[in-house]
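Chain A, query sequence.
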Amino acid sequence: MAVTTLPVEACIEQIGEALAGPGVAVLHAPPGAGKTTLVPLRLLDQPWLAGRRIVMLEPRRLATRAAATRMASLLRQPVGATVGYRTRDEQRVGPATRVEVVTEGILTRRLQHDPALPGVGLVIFDEVHERNLQSDLALAFALDVRSGLRPDLRLMAMSATVDTEGIAALLGVGRGAPAPVVVSHGRQHPVEIRWSPPSPHRRPDEAMAAAVLRAVADDPGDVLVFLPGAADIGRVRTKLAGALPEGVDLLPLFGALPSAQQDLALAPSRPGGRRVVLATDIAETSLTVNGVRVVVDGGQVRSPRYDPGTGLTRLHTGAASRSSADQRAGRAGREAPGVAYRLWSEVEHVRRPLFAKSEMASVDLAGLVLELAVWGAAPDQLLFLERPPEAALADGRALLVGLGALDEPDGRPTARGRRMADLPLHPRLARMVVDAVPLGLGWVACALAALLEDRDILRGRPEDVGADVAERVALITDAQGRHHLVDQAARASARRRADQLARRVDVRVAPVDIGDCGRVLVLAYPDRLAQARIARPTSASRAAGTAGPAGVGGGRPSAARSASAGAGAGASARGGAGGPARFRLRNGSGAWLPGSDPLARENFLVVGQLDPDQGDDRIRLAAALDEADLESAAGASVTTSTELTWDEDRADLRATQTRRLDHLVLSTTERKAPPGAQATAAVLGHVRATELAALSWTQGARLFQRRVMFLRRTFGDPWPDLSDPALLASIDSWLAPRLSAAMVSDRAGLERLDLTGVLRGLVGSPGLAQMDALAPTSLPAGNGRRLRVDYHDDAPSAAVKVQELFGVTRHPAIAGGRVPLVLHLLSPAGRPIQVTADLPGFWAGSYAAVRKDMAGRYPRHAWPGDPATAEVPTGRRSRTT
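Chain A, predicted structure.
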């Protein structure tokens, strides 16, 4: 191959020497220097390579194919001869291939299957600044191999913007010195930066379209436009359609496009024409878009972010870093002086981070944990550019254990886990495919995996497209599938991916019953089962026009229902139902669907995608699931518990049996509680909750309780404390045995309980023998009459008409004469006259005034002058009680 004018040519000798000696190197070269397409070719004849192959890792599929195509053209050979490539979707390699450009997952799989990498002399990690998770993992594996199994394996990292000190130190671990750093200064034409922040009230797509039209009008050359994602490209493309001058082609460029369309965007403009290329950050680094003199940068990037609170990784649109913005602007200066429009202010630019956050620190690490388990190393035993966060590692382990990929507690991969690791899928989707194959549902699983790992094949507002994945499966598995909102390019890409997965797991493409989607999807998301907060009628009852069961349930989604959904559920979803349909997820959090969505009628869903919303998350993709399939998927996780509660209306103890899957209530049944230890404990709890009021407190029981408490206040021990608080505190010892013996489970049983007898038993025989003498219920007055003793207050008392005490000279007392009764003296009509605890003193003192007043009021009653010696009147005598 002839010598080129690419700047990196000047560094080849230095690179070769570094790899010949230390065996590791870092190449720092700006965009356009030729590092990706020239360096591997120049190293092929190095003596230390000894005819072995070079494997170069590219983090993006489009860049992988483009790099291999460019190298092959420099050699004037077809792709697949000396230079080839492998991605998850396709491969172009042959027996003579010596430079193999691969995507990150391909290199990881190769290392897992044969860490020795036979026939490979050099592994190049291109664009390491992008810090993709799989790139970091593959580099850690390669360093581990080099440290022991293959010390002759050469490693090189290349990038335009990277912490060269950090990567050099990592590659040099074990050598006592960092890896040599080779710097190519490149060739960059000046680029004028034009700051063009739009009005804050203008829509982003409108602002971008206006900036593009301004650039086309004011500046020569092709225009490269950076947007966050394919949906943003679609919106701006719509705005620009018909607005561009004649002769200006409008082309999209993103990873999911078919290869032919990608090649069209990368090719030079037609003679005399210009083009506007709408691209994601895929065009930021290793790709060369020929003819570009103008860059219009929206300053946004879409990157994955892991939320430990939900266990979900979501794409987040945020501000691109300063180094990313510089990379994008540099695209305008590769061939000649250029212009870069930035749709943000210079002040805002200074506040942006210098480098993008790595995926290691921001995404779900379940895949990494599985790879490490299969590799047989803990995270701290490998060399990473950035140590994986412990919280994300722990979440990844927990998920893999739940999926059956790892054993507890040692964390070793199971047979299922090893099969999962062989598939180029997230562990959730890999588990779904692995487990669906033996069930005869492998093709459905492959279709679902292809749908869920990439962008949605339906375009439009969520209210229009609906959430049912079954409708999407119908569109990619049925050649006749039709939908007015389908993205045909995305549909074709998903079908290709499903076919590739099917070949990998050796399943036959065949007609599917899309009613199986729920039972397949739950294999990937067993933790994202959802239950309607309000039970709907089952499918069968809807068909029959009858109401559903009282408990939550649901029939299996019928193929007919799903097929009709596939034919036009989007249209039906626009029909008006009421407010949102609320669901409860297995973990207890909430989620919702628009009430117009067909899935809003289902009792159970398995959720494939959730989007954050104010309050509950919104369900974006899901499948209907019947209760039988839910329980089959949940297995031993379904628990049955019985709760005994007191029913005030029925006045008895009810046993409620509940079958749960974590926070989901699958069924409940209620009946009268049978006798037994649980029933006794529940009745005891009811009595405790009512503070003993549920017991049958007769007047006699309360009187006995008060008499004992009087004796305890007076004499102390051994009289027991029978107060309500004391009885509550010791309820397990005195009441529980009696409830158990009587098999009490309702109010009637409590009413039959002889509470007086229970309290007497607590006092005991010796105390009972003394009670009548020390705390009598009535007391002789001394004139042949008896006084009924009241123990309600702390001081025992008796109410008596004053005439009935005539002739009494000693004050009545109890407790062996220790405690005088408090006498409430009454008039002949029973009205209070006076309270005294000294009857002789009353006779000698205030009685005279009472006599004078009472004689006037009650002249027909006797009012003797000396009541102590008088007899009780025999006429109009009141009862002493």
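The first strand starts at residue 24 and ends at 28. The chain has a mean pLDDT of 87.
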